[in-house]
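Retro notes (design track)

What went well: tokenization of the new backbones is finally stable.
What didn't: we kept losing track of which sequence belonged to which structure.
Fix going forward: every design gets posted as structure first, then sequence, in one message. First example under the new rule, 481 residues:
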């Protein structure tokens, strides 16, 4: 059992809880309070996890569908019955408020249950072999088989549900999986392992190996027995993985600086509320977070007034308080980086409408306008509580400016005009367009991923299972009577 108040937490190596003499401190970013320590795994530990996963793969692939379904549902039941404990862990080690953390824990339950449902639907099709001349008398089909050992590298911003999005589908599809969680937030991933242990998952199918990326990451990424890397993180790290991985499958979600479009016919109140929430959820540390808003000129002044007023109502404070809307960033280093990007933009001519102040790891919800396109914060993913407002003359300009960056994960469009909605849906270069919702909207069952520098492949349980399996063809040549 894991208790965030107890110093010394083991990692989950092939079904066994183990510790090591080298440790990593896990601290609350709000006050730098020591929560616990976890092992700083070595290269040898990762090699052991991979060797054990070879056995785990045979076990997992031979489990019947009903066994996989039963384990997944029992794991979901376990999390649901300990939901507040999971939420406190998420909030304590990361940036989320307790209310945000409860939502993540609840979504994790849904993700695992959805994985159980989708385990029943891993099917193939019959193939008409006699479509090819000379192939008469043949009948067959294809099925889908596990891809093998999966290496999952997960980020700090959703330390439970994003791990579940890799572990749930892996188990549903009969794979073995090794998770390397974010160094800053390993406890939630370990608690997910706790749930699967309680659910009766056989040893060796799952490992959660804690440690530094430079110590164990390359071993996981480059090992030839690891057949797929599922990575969520930054572009630079993603590019490094593609250069090292070798001949294996890659699935990557690499973030964005998501745009939103607000047209003159939109519901102003709904657009403001949705985009404020989308910009500042989890202190803006959200790959789907609203970063750029393009607002039609005729309503721009009123929109800015309402948006700034709503932003200034956001309450910062203790993450575990029910009254707090936004917590700190994951570290003071990250808050300093965000602060420097904002200062650069202001020096280049941007107007600071509200926010812009830092206190340790906390950074106020910040709204900028007139940000020059060449500024870092206009081009890159800020991953912090900052949103940029721009006036545009029409939807054509809004789409062009939305597409002007090298990211393309999701976009939000606010309009009551059906033609404009379809125009934006067709022309925005992104993986998902949310009409009358911010770019932050997502459910765990939809295909999720981006284009351009935002990634490769798609997550969402059904679609992850497709990525984690391969088609296998079976053909019978029948003797003619």
């Amino acid at each position: 059992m894991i208790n965030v108040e107890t110093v010394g937490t083991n990692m989950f190596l092939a079904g066994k809880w183990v510790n090591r003499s080298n440790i990593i401190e896990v601290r609350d970013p709000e006050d730098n309070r020591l929560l616990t320590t976890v092992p700083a795994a070595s290269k040898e530990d990762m090699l052991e996890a991979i060797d054990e996963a070879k056995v785990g793969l045979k076990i997992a692939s031979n489990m019947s569908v009903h066994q996989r379904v039963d384990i997944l549902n029992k794991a979901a039941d376990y999390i649901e019955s300990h939901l507040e404990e999971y939420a406190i862990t998420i909030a304590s080690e990361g940036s989320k408020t307790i209310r945000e953390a409860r939502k993540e824990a609840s979504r994790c339950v849904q993700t695992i249950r959805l994985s159980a449902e989708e385990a029943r639907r891993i099917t193939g099709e019959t193939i008409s072999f006699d479509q090819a001349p000379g192939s008469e008398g043949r009948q067959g089909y294809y099925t889908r088989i596990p891809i093998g050992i999966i290496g999952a590298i997960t980020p700090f911003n959703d330390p439970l549900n994003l791990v579940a999005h890799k572990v749930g589908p892996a188990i549903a599809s009969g794979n073995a999986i090794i998770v390397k969680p974010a160094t800053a937030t390993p406890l939630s991933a370990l608690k997910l392992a706790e749930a699967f242990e309680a659910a009766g998952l056989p040893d060796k199918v799952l490992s959660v190996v804690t440690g530094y990326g430079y110590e164990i990451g390359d071993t996981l990424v480059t090992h030839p027995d690891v057949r797929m890397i599922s990575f969520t993180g930054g572009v630079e790290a993603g590019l490094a993985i593609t250069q090292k991985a070798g001949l294996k499958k890659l699935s990557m979600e690499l973030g964005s600086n998501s745009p939103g479009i607000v047209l003159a016919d939109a519901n102003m109140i709904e657009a403001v509320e949705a985009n404020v929430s989308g910009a500042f959820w989890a202190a803006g540390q959200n790959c789907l977070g609203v970063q750029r808003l393009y607002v039609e000129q005729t309503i721009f002044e009123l929109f800015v007034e309402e948006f700034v007023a709503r932003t200034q109502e956001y309450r910062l404070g203790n993450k575990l308080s029910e009254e707090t809307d936004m917590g700190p960033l994951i570290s003071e280093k990250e808050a300093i980086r965000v602060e420097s990007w904002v200062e650069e933009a202001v020096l280049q001519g941007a107007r600071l409408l509200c926010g812009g102040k830092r206190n340790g790891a906390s950074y106020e919800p910040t709204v900028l306008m007139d940000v020059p396109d060449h500024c870092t914060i206009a081009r890159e993913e800020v991953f912090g509580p900052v949103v940029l407002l721009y006036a545009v003359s029409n939807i054509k300009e809004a789409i062009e400016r939305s597409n002007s960056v090298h990211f393309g994960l999701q976009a939000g469009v606010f309009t009551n005009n059906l033609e404009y909605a379809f125009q934006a849906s067709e022309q925005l270069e992104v993986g998902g367009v949310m009409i009358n919702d911010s770019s932050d909207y997502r459910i765990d069952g939809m295909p999720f991923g981006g284009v351009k520098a935002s990634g490769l492949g798609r997550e969402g349980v059904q679609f992850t299972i497709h990525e984690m399996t391969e088609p296998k063809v079976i053909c019978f040549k029948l003797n003619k009577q």
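Added context from the reviewer: Residues 11-255+455-472 form a domain with the Aldehyde Dehydrogenase; Chain A, domain 1 fold (CATH 3.40.605.10).
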